[in-house]
Write a structure and sequence with these properties.
14 helices; alpha/beta; UDP-n-acetylglucosamine1-carboxyvinyl-transferase, Chain; binds uridine-diphosphate-2(N-acetylglucosaminyl) butyric acid; 4-stranded mixed beta sheet
Length: 420
């Protein structure tokens, strides 16, 4: 096992390039199951979660081969079981359910387990597929789904929290091969869903309304192979924007798309961060002044993303006053709070609210990464803390940030890996 060491206190300066979006690439890779033809998916980041999806495709007898940043996925899936050992390591594995059901009429996918960021039910995934005509049973920890035929219908995919990203993905993928028209109401509008819809359209699917809460899918008989370029990762981009802001550095985040980051940009401007939207990225110009505190509420897109909550918290730890962060998507996603407190942060939790009292400085400490975005938050805190921060269990980071330490070193951070 490795740990990450950061010597804090250096202003970051230079250009850091954003990789392809993990959360767009994963469902897109699953969607290749909908065709027997070859698909080429470009701009796929080298991450542990992507490796897990490859293993799942291989378990289904599909060949997935990496060639640099691209994946060539070919072959007909002849098996329909996504086993516990793989699904258990990555919840996004559940997105093979919709494509398998639509293509093979039967799917056997391990029921995803709990997760450190809180309970993550899949009732909406099952609702979407059942409304299309699937018969679904849970047996021995597996979702057993079958359908002789899927038929389009109107589906309201909502819960008390709003829309669901991967439930929308699963239902949309299954509906591409259903008979007739499916209308998904309260669909997720996340850029990753739009990217998936565009991928499916390039395979011959008939989809309209992606990026709105009403997605309309007219089923087709067959989908064909295609080539697709995955969108840049908005969460990775946001994390690097904050690395510039927190170190009062001067960082150009190449490939960051402002239109995917409006909520974060708006909050950073409110906090008096100077940033510029360029054609090919976003520039953060660090200023010596104080960070203005703010309130942040996580919401489905285009609201402030829950995947940026922990990183934003690290930044607000150093604001000149009290900030309030309300987590509405995963109300228990606050494990990073105790680790940030070890570094001198003053944060109090009250249900889904974190009250962040700004402090003058953070100091380096031994801390533990608990999940992907919490790890990124600790890295940001380490960049600005005085002295040395050691982050243990960084395998979480490798699930979702491609070469994070190398990219940050490239803009002047003192960051390296050591064996535990
Ligand atoms: N929910 C239900 N029932 C369902 C599905 C979701 O109640 O059937 C609830 C969840 O408990 C949560 C809310 O709906 O309260 C939203 O969850 P959503 O389904 O949208 O999350 P997801 O699709 O499972 C994706 C990302 C997550 C990201 C969330 C929210 C992928 C692979 N994962 O998960 O990313 O936090 O959307 O934006 O796309 C990450 O990358 O670190 C990560 C956790």
């Amino acid at each position: 096992m490795e740990k990450l060491i950061i010597e804090g206190g250096y202003r970051l300066k230079g250009t850091v390039a954003v990789s392809g979006a993990k959360n767009a690439a994963l469902p897109i890779m699953a969607a290749t199951l909908l065709t027997d033809d070859t698909c080429i998916i470009k701009n796929v980041p080298a991450l542990r979660d992507i490796d897990t999806m490859v293993k799942i495709l291989q378990a289904l007898d599909v060949k997935a081969e990496r060639n640099g940043q691209n994946f060539i996925i070919r072959g007909t899936c002849s098996r329909v079981k996504a086993p516990y050992e793989l699904v258990n390591t990555m919840r996004a594995s559940v997105c093979v359910l919709g494509p398998l059901l639509a293509k093979k009429k039967v799917a056997e996918v391990s029921f995803p387990g709990g997760c450190v960021i809180g309970p993550r039910p899949i009732d909406l995934h099952l609702k979407g597929l059942e409304m299309l005509g699937a018969d679904i049973k849970i047996k021995s920890g597996y979702i057993l789904a079958k359908a002789d035929k899927l038929t389009g219908t109107k589906i309201y995919l909502g819960g008390h929290f709003g829309s669901s990203v991967l439930a929308t993905a699963n239902t949309m993928m299954a509906a591409t091969l259903a008979e007739g028209v499916t209308v998904i109401e309260n669909a997720a509008c996340e850029p990753e869903i739009v990217d998936l819809a565009n991928f499916l359209i390039s395979m011959g699917a008939k989809i309209a309304g992606q990026s709105t809460p009403t997605i309309r899918i007219k089923g087709v008989k067959k989908l064909h192979g295609t080539t697709h370029n995955v969108i840049p990762d908005r969460v990775e981009a946001g994390t690097y924007m904050l690395s510039g802001a927190i170190t009062k550095g001067d960082v150009f985040v190449k490939n960051a798309r402002a239109e995917h980051l409006m909520a974060l940009i708006d909050k950073l401007r409110e906090c008096r961060v100077e940033l510029y939207e360029r054609k090919d990225g976003i520039s953060i110009v660090g200023k010596k002044g104080k960070i203005k505190p703010t309130t942040v509420t996580t919401l489905p897109y285009p609201g402030f993303p829950t995947d940026m909550q922990a990183q934003m918290m690290s930044f607000l730890c150093l604001a000149d006053g009290i900030s309030v962060i309300t987590e509405k998507i995963y109300t228990e996603r606050f494990i990073h709070v105790s680790e940030l407190s070890r570094m001198g942060a003053r944060i109090f939790l009250e249900g889904p609210n974190a009250i962040v009292n700004g402090v003058k400085k953070l100091s380096g400490a031994e801390v533990m990464a608990s999940d992907l975005r919490a790890s990124a938050a600790l890295v940001l805190a380490g960049l600005v803390a005085s002295g040395k921060t050691s982050i243990h269990r960084i395998y979480h980071l490798d699930r979702g940030y491609e070469n994070l330490d190398r990219k940050l070193s490239g803009v002047g951070a003192r960051i390296w890996r050591e064996k535990e």
